[in-house]
Write a structure and sequence with these properties.
Blueprint: E1 4-11, E2 14-15, H1 18-31, E3 55-62, E4 66-73, E5 82-86, H2 100-106, E6 114-119, E7 122-123, E8 130-134, E9 139-142, H3 150-157, E10 162-164, E11 176-180, E12 191-193, E13 197-199
Parallel strand pairs: 5-6, 5-13, 9-10
Antiparallel strand pairs: 1-2, 1-3, 3-4, 6-7, 8-9, 8-11, 11-12
Amino acid sequence: MSPLLETIKLEDGKLFNLEYHNRRLNKARRDYFGLKEEIALEGIITITEEYKTGLYRCRVIYSPEIERVEFVRHQYREVKSLMLVEGNSVDYRFKYTDRKQLLKLFGRRGGCDDILIVQNGCITDSSTANIIFFDGAKWWTPDTPLLPGTQRERLLEEGEIFECRITPGDLNKYINAGLINAMQDLKSMPVVLMENIVSSK
């Protein structure tokens, strides 16, 4: 079984959205590893002085036991274009450390910055983020994500975004798209114009 991963935003010594990361980690421990005992990440992660300034990805790698916690300095990547690619066989229900399937699809992005995966006729995610679409009034996210992200869950619960079925044929209903993940919220996410979401020829 592939080890799993939680990636948590650490900025100036503060960990973000821990409630949602704890939920996902413990659900994965139950559903993937068959474990009932719950873990609190705040009791596992120790932030030393060198990581108390700046922006980092705090990566918690775990199997049935926590394997390691590491900190990686983060720089936001510019994403202005997305290539629609079909990925009907991709399984990313859990946040696996093994990303070979996603990397293979990412290799089909052509001249675009990232991919937007279509599975069974429905829009899912990019290679590293959940996607949201703006219709001029509200932000909408597909109800068919490969992996329901922690930022996505928080924004849904807080009523900042809404969920619906979205297919490639629906994309003309929207003005632009945003990419959200543990490191990117509504303020810091890259925004992609709909004209820059293209299909492979």
